[in-house]
Design goal:
Blueprint (H helix, E strand, L loop, with lengths): L7 E8 L2 E10 L12 H11 L8 H10 L3 H8 E6 L5 E8 L1 E5 L8 E4 L12 H7 L8 E5 L2 H10 L1 E6 L4 E9 L7 H8 L9 H10 L1 H8 L6 E5 L22 E3 L10 E6 L5 E9 L9 E8 L1 H8 L2 E11 H9 L2
Parallel strand pairs: 4-14, 5-8, 11-13
Antiparallel strand pairs: 1-2, 2-3, 3-15, 4-15, 5-7, 6-7, 8-9, 9-10, 11-14, 12-13, 12-15
Helix pairs in contact: 5-7, 7-8
Length: about 350
């Protein structure tokens, strides 16, 4: 490990069928701030959820070793090498969460905003959010999953892509991402600031929700400026105690899963993050999800958890820092020795 410290190499990775060129520098685990004191067992538990999905190269052997290990830190240090990718030394971290919203399976005077399944014709670029809502393109077609009270909560459900609906009988309905209408996301908070409805420091979910309730017509109009519309599916067999389903079709783990750009970071890989900001975070994470706004080698979205408290925490995170991906040892050695 020490003999490779500082070795720079060019590496072609095949990620999701796409060949991506990336430059890496091998670094010593001892150089990772907080590595020795991290809870490696928590990272290992998250890693084990998705490692069976990795079936090429060294990954099956690594996963088998992970299932048998009794020392999580030693496992990661034995089977991986820490590699700093060009662009990750100036990383940007945001965070996301799983909303929990009160709702009903039937529309009422209180619960009147529908969560919809994807219609069969919604392929590629379809109708905009404004067109969908103004034309009632989805109403009365049997696509309704449930109904919620607050249009802003529904908007944030769309932004996060999954959530829990706490129904009137006390049960919980899990919904997950099932597709979109083909348009890019546009920030409603930024639009409200641009129009002068709220100051930049006021643009939290709670403030936006309160403003929309006081100004329903203008509120509906500003929400429709986000052309992107998300469709959902019911996750009937997914336990309420687990996190939402990520891009690897497995549950993600609060505080240990991140969303990355799969063109730069292989899904399922361990990734060490060093997040600065008001609440620094030096922690081993697992890349298990993706996001439409997560682009580039130095971007990561940290999954915080479910509910309002997690949402409040996630909304405060937009911090600089650094990322280091853990590459399988043989892969790192092979490409380093080729330089």
């Amino acid at each position: 490990m020490r003999g490779l410290a500082g070795a720079v190499f060019g590496l072609w990775l095949v990620l999701a069928g796409t060949a991506v060129s990336a430059n890496y520098t091998i670094v010593d685990f001892k150089s990772l701030k907080g590595w020795a004191t991290d809870d490696h067992s928590a990272a290992l538990s998250a890693f084990l959820v998705t490692c069976p999905q990795l079936t090429s190269g060294e990954w099956p052997t690594i996963c088998a070793a992970a299932q048998k290990t009794t020392n999580a830190r030693r496992f990661f240090e034995t089977h991986f090498r820490a590699a700093r990718q060009t662009g990750t030394e100036t990383a940007h971290f945001t965070a996301y969460y799983e909303p929990e919203i009160e709702g009903s399976l039937t529309p009422t005077s209180k619960y009147k905003y529908a969560i919809y399944k994807r219609p069969p014709e919604a392929r590629g670029t379809w109708l905009t959010r404004r067109q969908i809502e103004d034309r009632g393109a989805l109403k009365g077609r049997g696509l309704e999953i449930a109904y919620v009270e607050d249009p802003v909560e529904l908007l944030y459900l769309h932004i996060q892509g999954s959530g829990r609906i706490r129904l009137t009988d006390g049960s919980v309905l899990r919904v997950g991402y099932a597709g979109n209408n083909g348009y890019k996301f546009r920030s409603v908070a930024s639009e409200m600031v641009r129009r002068g409805y709220l100051a930049k420091h006021q643009a939290s979910q709670a403030r936006i929700s309160a403003w929309v309730k006081r100004n329903p017509r203008d509120g509906a109009d500003v929400i429709k400026t986000n052309n992107r519309y998300i469709f959902f599916k019911v996750q009937e067999k997914h336990a309420a105690s687990k996190g939402p389903i990520g891009a690897m079709n497995r549950a993600i783990t609060a505080g240990r899963s991140i969303a990355v750009d799969p063109k730069h970071t292989k899904l399922g890989s361990p990734v060490w993050i060093e997040k600065r900001g008001a609440v620094p975070m030096n922690r081993l994470m697992i890349a298990q999800d993706t996001g439409s706004a997560i682009k580039g080698a130095g971007r990561a979205d940290i999954y915080i958890g479910s509910g309002d408290k997690a949402g409040a925490t996630a909304g405060k995170i937009s911090d600089a820092g650094a990322m280091v991906v853990l590459l399988p040892k043989g892969q790192a050695l092979k490409y380093a020795s080729a330089q």
